Amino acid sequence: MLAKLVLLVLVILAGMLLFTPEAMADATAGGAAPAAGRQWEQVAVVSCQLAMLLSATALSVFKPRGRVGRRRARS
């Protein structure tokens, strides 16, 4: 559970890298194309975010410590 929380925080922080004032100014600059290096940086950040979210999903579905046992109700 802690690992999923850390991954979520990292996804949010990585997303903050995409919304710098320079990037927002470039995005609203009348259709001017951003620099090629900036495009690859955006692709890398979004790819890392996707990988982290898929990892968190895998941790939710496949428990690393095995199944959690349920107690049977006493009758």
Salient structural properties:
75 residues, 3 helices, mainly alpha
Summarize the structure.
The protein has three helices and no strands. With 75 residues, it is mostly helical.
What does this molecule look like?
The chain has 75 residues and is mainly alpha-helical. The chain has helices at 2-18, 21-27, 36-61. The longest helix has 26 residues, at 36-61.
- Average residue-wise pLDDT: 80
Which overall shape is indicated by the principal axes computed on the Cα atoms? rod-shaped
List the total number of helices: 3
The percent range for helix content is 55-70%
Q: Provide the β-strand percentage band.
A: under 5%
From the helix content, strand content and strand pairing, which structural class follows?
mainly alpha
Q: Radius of gyration in whole Å, from Cα? A: 20 Å
Order of helices and strands: HHH
Largest sheet: none
How many beta-strand segments? Answer: 0
Q: Which stretches are poorly predicted, pLDDT < 50 over at least 5 residues?
A: none
- Terminal Cα separation, in Å? 33 Å
